[in-house]
């Protein structure tokens, strides 16, 4: 399997490497960074297992799981973690989390576009979908500005922090998607109405709890 390396205007997706463990822990071990995700903060040992699994799954044939590091374009350091998991009927679910220091910069929109580029251009998918916490309105804006459509609500979708939680789902079809270069500056920067700073939480539930 050819390693994944996709670049956008500001970001890149690449395969996870052993050296990414500490950087991923700053995201997955942070209560604020995981506040709207479908799992509680991870321990160092749990993050190490996620990195190990990400590397191992990249060798599967056929490959059904793409666990990828999000980096700034031209820089090696992991600033986020993204995942695409294929499903039957040419479909996949996506999710991602970015380091809180990178929130409020429109990078979530570009992350979604890069995942869609992987799914539609490289894998020949027909449909990609994502889910978010009902309280995470910033992710709603991110997904809509990336071209996705809100589909509905899955009741009691995940059990997290001692309670059941619904999820709001979104999807995009292959003929609806446009590369980010065709979306204009508003899409790249998050639009004039985007929340800024810590108020914008560009987190989309990672399939299988981020593990």
Q: What do you see in this structure?
A:
Mean pLDDT is 87; it is low at 184-202. It contains five helices and eight strands. Helix 1 packs across helix 2. It has an eight-stranded mixed sheet, sandwiched between helices. By secondary structure, it is of the alpha+beta class. It has helices at 21-28, 44-57, 107-122, 137-145, 185-189, and strands at 5-7, 11-15, 65-72, 78-87, 91-98, 127-132, 149-160, 163-173.
Which band does the percent of strand residues land in? Answer: 25-35%
Main β-sheet: number of strands, strand sense, barrel status?
8 strands, mixed
Taking pLDDT < 50 over at least 5 consecutive residues as the criterion, the unreliable ranges are 184-202
Element string (H = helix, E = strand): EEHHEEEHEHEEH
| Distance linking N and C termini | 21 Å
* Total of DSSP H or I helical runs spanning 4+ residues: 5
If you average the pLDDT, what whole number results? 87
Strands, count? 8
* Rg, alpha carbons: 16 Å
> Approximately how much helix is present in the residues?
10-25%
- How does the overall form come out from the CA principal axes? globular
Secondary-structure-based class equals alpha+beta
What's the arrangement of strands in the largest beta sheet? 1-2-3-4-5-6-8-7
* Assembly category: single chain
């Amino acid at each position: 399997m050819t390693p994944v390396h996709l670049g956008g205007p500001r970001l890149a997706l690449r395969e996870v490497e052993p050296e990414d463990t500490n950087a991923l822990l700053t995201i997955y071990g942070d209560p604020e960074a995981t506040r709207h995700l479908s799992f509680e903060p991870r321990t160092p040992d749990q993050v190490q297992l996620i990195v190990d699994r990400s590397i191992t799954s990249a060798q599967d044939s056929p490959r059904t799981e793409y666990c990828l590091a999000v980096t700034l374009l031209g820089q090696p350091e992991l600033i986020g973690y993204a995942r695409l998991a294929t499903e039957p009927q040419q479909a996949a679910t996506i999710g991602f989390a970015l380091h809180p220091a990178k929130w409020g910069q429109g990078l979530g929109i570009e992350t979604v576009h890069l995942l869609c580029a992987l799914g539609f251009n490289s894998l020949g998918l027909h449909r990609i979908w994502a889910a978010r916490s009902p309280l995470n309105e910033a992710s709603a804006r991110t997904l809509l500005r990336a071209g996705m459509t809100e589909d509905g609500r899955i009741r009691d979708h995940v059990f997290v922090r001692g309670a059941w939680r619904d999820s709001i789902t979104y999807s995009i079809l292959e003929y609806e998607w446009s590369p980010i270069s065709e979306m204009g500056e508003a899409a790249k920067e998050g639009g004039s109405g985007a929340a800024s700073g810590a108020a914008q939480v560009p987190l989309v539930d990672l399939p299988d709890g981020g593990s």
